[in-house]
């Protein structure tokens, strides 16, 4: 449940911020110049999501290895 919640929360945050930044860029009247900052922030958020995905995969692999070690070795 926790992994699913983390994945959904990250995607939801990116989608909400992307929609908000597009609306703010469109309403600012600056055109393409107003879209540069939201684009950079969205790119940074995607990079952060990829980093979080690698950390979660690492933790999952470590916990799985620890569980399997304890299951195989009988004191």
Can you tell me about this structure?
This protein is mainly α. The chain has one domain (2-72). Helix content is 85%, strand content 0%. It has 2 helices and no strands. It has helices at residues 2-28, 36-72. Helix 1 (2-28) runs antiparallel to helix 2. The two termini are 31 Å apart.
Mean model confidence by pLDDT = 85
- Which bin fits the share of residues in helices? over 70%
CA-based shape: rod-shaped
What is the end-to-end distance? 31 Å
Please tell me the total number of domains.
1
Write the layout of secondary structure elements.
Layout: H1 2-28, H2 36-72
Helix pairs in contact: 1-2
Summarize the structure.
The chain is mostly helical and about 80 residues long.
């Amino acid at each position: 449940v926790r992994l699913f919640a983390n994945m959904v929360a990250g995607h939801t945050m990116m989608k909400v911020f992307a929609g908000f930044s597009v609306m703010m860029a469109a309403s600012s009247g600056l055109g393409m110049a107003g879209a540069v900052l939201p684009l950079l922030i969205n790119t940074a958020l995607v990079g952060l999501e990829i980093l979080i995905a690698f950390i979660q995969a690492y933790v999952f692999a470590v916990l799985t290895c620890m569980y399997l070690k304890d299951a195989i070795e009988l004191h």
